[in-house]
Predict the structure.
Amino acid sequence: QVQLVESGGGLVQPGGSLRLSCVASGTIASMNFMGWWRQAPGKQRDPVATAHSDGRRNYADSVKGRFTISRSNAKNTVSLQMNSLTPEDTAVYYCGLGQGRWYWGQGTQVTVSS
């Protein structure tokens, strides 16, 4: 019913920046969450940042001040600007949309390494 496609991942040096983007399609409710989660190998998938259609924004403590989430309700898109990246940010990043349940994209790899 809902499809999500992420883009923008890649390899970046510590201190560098990346911008992730996600486009949702299908039956999208007017009120919903969109956001980003990440999962490192052998680790749990954890929320990074979420953005509700009503304007609420939430960030994980580990990314506050470095990452910025933005969304367009009209276009059903969400982006994540990631600055001052560290190796601890290395993970597969998943775009998610919540409207009664969570829908997930396929993920995009972010690797922070020298």
